[in-house]
Design goal:
The chain has ten helices and eleven strands. The chain is globular and about 60 Å long. The chain is an alpha/beta fold and 325 residues long. It has two domains: 201 residues, Rossmann fold (3-Layer(aba) Sandwich), CATH 3.40.50.150; 108 residues, DNA Methylase, Chain A, domain 2. Strand 3, helix 3 and strand 4 form a beta-alpha-beta unit. The longest helix is centred in the last third of the chain and has 14 residues.
Length: 325
């Protein structure tokens, strides 16, 4: 099976699909730092503006993968949706699907897409691509509907062995309207933050202001002695904490300042980039510039590899390319 990797980021989709023997024939992203990391790991420099790419320039493929820009729909952004130029990039995905007619597409986005603009944004997306949605035939499809059998679900990374509270919507479409598909079921157990920490870290201490804010909030909330306690959303009068050994959602804003970086309270330090990669399920041999702001941004923008691997596994089962087990 051949696939393309749009808005490829640092290659989470690619790692997942290649684990089943699929071959990436095209990748694209417009961030030069992302492309540098991608080349370090895959030997390709995918820099391109997808709005200017001619479909004829893209090799034929079976599966389209795209974690299309989430900022227009995210609660961390302004939530402008299709009024944001990044939101309209979805229609470049549509342009490619319409001409290439792949067997399958797999899309990923933030949970905020589900209720953005009272659900109208998701309806536009689904009605653009789907003839059937989870077996429901009577949908308000558009005249230029792509005719796919579409399934979608919100999955949380923490339910699939990843030590991170990360809710994302996954949208899977099949050209074959008779195919059945099931999203993976949650798994019991999994890694905790204590399983992924590097040892003897001495260069990741936070600012004195951030440390003061955390300690002040610890006193106000009467919190003490919690091992691997994580602080986040750090403000003078507000600070959130997690006690369950699970990281809050890693975001692109980790690269923009101390307020957005989860802090390991008992060491008063932020996570290293290696720890963040582990939180997202990347392999140990993955290469990225250590502890650079743009590296944190890249990891925060990526997908949780164990989750998309399980979604891909179910796709290949539905295509009868691997046995159902």
């Amino acid at each position: 099976m051949k696939f393309i990797d749009l808005f490829c980021g640092i290659g989470g989709f690619r790692i997942a699909l290649e684990s089943f023997g699929a071959k990436c024939v095209y990748s694209s992203d417009n961030d030069k730092y992302v492309c540098k990391t991608y080349k370090e790991n895959f030997g390709e420099y995918p820099l391109s503006d997808i709005t200017k790419v001619k479909v004829s320039e893209i090799p034929d493929f079976d599966i389209l993968c795209a974690g299309f820009p989430c900022q227009p729909f995210s609660i961390a952004g302004l939530r402008k949706g299709f009024n944001d130029t990044r939101g309209t990039l979805f229609f470049d995905i549509v342009r490619i699907i319409k001409e290439k007619k792949p067997q399958v597409f797999i899309l990923e986005n933030v949970r905020g897409l589900v209720n953005h603009d009272s659900g109208k944004t998701l309806n536009v997306i689904l009605n653009t691509v789907a003839t059937k949605i989870n077996g429901i035939k009577n949908i308000n499809k558009f005249d230029d509907n792509l005719g796919y059998n579409v399934f979608y679900k919100v999955l949380n990374s923490k339910d699939f062995g990843v030590p991170q509270n990360r809710e994302r919507i996954y949208i899977v479409g099949f050209l074959n309207k008779n195919i059945t598909f099931n999203f993976p079921s949650p798994k019991k157990g999994g890694k905790l933050i204590s399983d992924i920490l590097e040892k003897n870290i001495t260069d990741h201490y936070i600012s004195k202001t951030a440390e003061f804010n955390i300690k002040n909030n610890l006193k106000k909330k009467d919190i003490s002695g919690e091992e691997n306690l994580i602080a986040y959303e750090i403000r003078k009068s507000k600070c959130s904490f997690r006690y369950d050994g699970i990281s809050p959602t890693l975001t692109a804003k980790m690269g923009t300042g101390g307020n957005n970086v989860p802090v390991l309270v008992n060491e008063m330090r932020k996570f290293t980039t290696r720890e963040c990669l582990r939180i997202q399920g990347f392999p140990e041999n993955y290469k990225i510039e250590r502890n650079k702001s743009h590296s944190y941004k890249q990891i925060g923008n990526s997908i949780s590899i164990p989750v998309i691997t399980l979604v891909a596994k179910e796709v290949f089962k539905s295509l009868k390319l691997i046995k159902k087990v």
